[in-house]
Design a protein that fits this description.
The protein is mostly beta strands and 306 residues long. It has helices at 236-255, 259-269, 295-301, and strands at 5-8, 13-14, 16-17, 25-27, 32-37, 63-69, 77-87, 90-95, 110-117, 120-123, 126-129, 133-138, 145-146, 150-151, 154-156, 167-171, 179-185, 202-211, 220-222, 226-233, 271-276, 282-289. The protein has a 9-stranded mixed β-sheet with strand order 1-5-18-7-16-19-20-22-21. Strands 2, 4, 6, 12, 14, 15 and 17 form a 7-stranded mixed β-sheet that branches. It is globular and about 60 Å long. The mean pLDDT is 97. The chain binds calcium ion (CA) (2 copies). The site of one calcium ion has 6 residues, from strand 12.
């Protein structure tokens, strides 16, 4: 069967996920969708003379879309496979007073423009390998949530693992799901210490699919050799507690173990990781290797009857 190919331009964007989102395009499961994305500043910064404090903050964190997926209804999981991320050549990173891990020590706003070229990011004299990833990716949720915050619906997850080849499973709350994405980073370290990464406009191509009746309580990410549960909360310790609770439940289901055995297995193989520490809600991940987990068991254990 020939699958359709859609393109969403960067003038179709939202600044919050919520019940008032309406689709700019419809796609069927299996369709390819290319999103042209603005950077997180809506491309307002183009030179190092410009400070982030001088731009229009109502246009921060745009997400291109939303796209309705035919047949997606509340309780389904929307599957989004990231096929390709092509960043533009101009990347921007800033410091903002009182923002980031060292907010109290950050006295001034500074802007650096980084060239992104042939798989490398040029930060001044320092050359880094590019590792393009999507910062904001989510669906319409019940409570209006700024694209600057993450949650059960996805949103500002700022997770380095959301790159080409990864598949994200998001819970559907509203008809069509209403997928939107943006805030691409050419490279970012786990944590996103200074509150910004190498922010780039980009072209992102995904393939959408549906798992009927399999909405997970939190976004689930599939990479080559593992699944990661992505939990966001103001309180990091609580986020890890929530992530491990689902991991243990899923390990018990996938391996037919008692809760106690699954808890011990989690202690042996599940890795706690940090996605970002700088958004209003922080995002953590619990990574479970595929050797002891299947997507079916994981989505079943994480099923959320919202
Ligand atoms: Ca972000
Ligand atoms: Ca960003």
């Amino acid at each position: 069967m020939q699958c359709s190919h859609h393109h969403i331009s960067d003038d179709r964007c939202i600044f919050a996920f919520g019940p008032s989102n309406s689709a700019v395009e419809k796609a069927e499961p299996g369709a390819l969708i290319a999103f042209t994305t603005l950077d997180c500043f809506s491309n307002q910064i183009t030179t190092e003379d410009q400070c982030v404090t001088g731009i229009d903050f109502s246009r921060i964190n745009p997400a291109t879309g939303p796209v309705a997926v035919d047949g997606a209804v509340r309780g389904d999981a929307l599957q989004v496979k990231v096929l390709e991320i092509v960043p533009e050549t101009r990347g921007t990173i800033v410091t903002i007073p009182d923002a980031g891990i060292l907010g109290a020590e950050t006295k001034k706003s500074t802007t650096r423009i980084c060239q992104v070229k042939e798989g490398s990011v040029h930060f001044g004299e320092i050359t880094l390998p590019a590792r393009p990833m999507i910062g904001v990716i989510g669906v319409a949720c019940d409570e209006e949530t700024s694209c600057g915050n993450p949650g059960r619906h996805g949103g500002n997850l700022d997770t380095t693992l959301i790159g080409a080849g990864a598949t994200l499973y998001l819970p559907v709350f509203h008809d069509g799901g209403l997928l939107a994405l943006g805030d691409v980073h050419a490279v970012m370290g786990d944590g996103e210490a200074c509150v910004a990464a190498c922010e780039v406009p980009a072209e992102v191509t995904v393939r959408v699919g549906l798992c009927k009746g399999r909405a997970p309580a939190w976004p689930v990410l599939e990479t080559d050799d593992a699944f990661s549960i992505l939990v966001s909360d103001e309180d990091l310790a609580h986020a890890f507690e929530e992530g491990f609770a689902y991991a243990v439940r899923a390990l018990a289901k996938a391996n037919e173990l008692s809760w106690e055995d699954a808890y011990m297995l989690a202690s042996l193989v599940a890795d706690a990781g940090v996605s970002q520490l700088v958004n209003p809600r922080k995002t953590i991940r619990v990574r479970i290797p595929k050797s002891v987990m299947t997507i079916t068991a994981l989505l079943e254990a994480m099923h959320h009857d919202a």
